[in-house]
Amino acid sequence: SRGLLKQWYQRRVRGVANALDNVDARSYMDRRCVYYKLPLLESGTLGTKGNIQVVLPHITESYSSSQDPPEKTIPMCTLKNFPNAIEHTIQWARDQFEGLFTKGPENTQKFISEPKFLEKQKSPGALLAILEGLNKDLGEDLPKDFSDCIRWARFLFDVNFNHTIAQLLYNFPKDQRTTSGALFWSGPKRCPNVLKFDADNEEHLNFIVAAANLRAFNYSIEQTRDRDMIKEVASKVIVPDFVPKTGVKIAVTEAEAEAQTDTHEEGSGKTDDILTNLSGKMDSFKSLNIQVADFEKDDDTNFHMDFVTACSNARASCYRIAPADKHKTKLIAGKIIPAIATTTAVVAGLVSLEMYKMIAGEDDVEKYKNAFLNLALPLFTFSEPICAPKNKYYEVEWTLWDRFEVKGDITLQELLDMFQKEHKLEISMLSQGVSMLYAFFMPPAKKKERGAMKLTEIVETVTKKKIPAHKKALVLEICCNDEEGEDVDTPYINYLLP
What we know:
By secondary structure, this protein is an alpha+beta fold. It is 44% helix and 13% strand. The protein has helices at 2-10, 23-35, 76-80, 86-113, 124-140, 146-171, 202-218, 227-236, 254-262, 268-279, 282-285, 304-318, 326-333, 341-359, 412-423, 444-451, 455-463; strands at residues 16-18, 40-46, 49-55, 370-374, 379-383, 391-393, 396-398, 404-407, 426-432, 435-439, 473-481, 487-488, 493-496. Helix 5 (124-140) runs parallel beside helix 10 (268-279) and helix 6 (146-171) crosses helix 7 (202-218). The protein is globular, with a radius of gyration of 29 Å.
């Protein structure tokens, strides 16, 4: 879309109408429209609800200027130990997918390819957790073939749906009572049952098939959909009987869950032992081709939704919650609310009305209308678009639509001198993306060296990447001081490449 927007801008397209299905995509399009100074008609539906927002260059705020309040989240203790609705088990299954097939392999991939990966972990607890995962994934759980992936999936089934549940019931027996005398397992707390793996159970086998294939994908092992072969191997796996552990703390409230999350085990001795063990095998890891599974709900061949559905239903079975089929699970996991044609028609009509004004070149903000509607009530509200907030340095007013345009391949010192002379501003820091190009606190020798370098040369040196040939401009963020040495807010620099 970045290249498409550039083509639109070059062809003098006069505006953009949005109808996207997620906030990230909307925010991205909004940023592009602000950059190219294009008007935007943002719209969306949510069941019977609909909204329209008009964004006008140099006049109104952008879509990203305001945000909806965050969605309510499921308490951690409910997800981990006390689910009572299918939504809870689906979210738990999504978290399992993320940890097992995305984050874990990503850590393994970085550990093998980035020498300083572990040094970036600031928390001792986080470092130990990563090392323990690496020690398992590159040690006892490292698969050599697909049969190993099946055995891993079989053990995972028992850990999730037998051992963990058995430990929970050991800590809180079915007849457990609270200090007030009430039954612990009452109200929203459903007393779970352990699951015993049954190769003839379709849901149990679905879990093994999906988990084994995803594990195979992570380690670039050839996958298989042969359920009979998978069933045969899984049924022969012997999992040791679980023995409950004493002293295990299980969070009952959200506060306890947060406290456990914030409590980190130092374990420096254990950390050193794992590091020594892994370092000795580093050469053998170089041949591994680790792949990360980024969750994609709309591909029916990648086993992603198969795993989430089977994992969620197995957990639901433990807690006697009605299971959900793959379609319903996808709707809930993807937070999809089915579109209603009536709402879509009303929103499309309202967007069209605002588009007529835009095409006519209307620049009076009072003539435009944002709208919110809910056909279930029914409710229709209209309001004028909010004007873009104004900032100021000296007597110069600016908004989010403004920027400093700088042309030509100049040196850093020339840029600093230009701002001093033309804007009476002293640039104290200059950055491009996450890369710091210049800062007032740099050593004098480095400041002198960078001052004589072309800005493009500095960017390539700091980022260690060549600027793509198709790139026509760089966005440079600046911090500035006025003549009295006070910090002032300013627009960014749009640095046009020669």
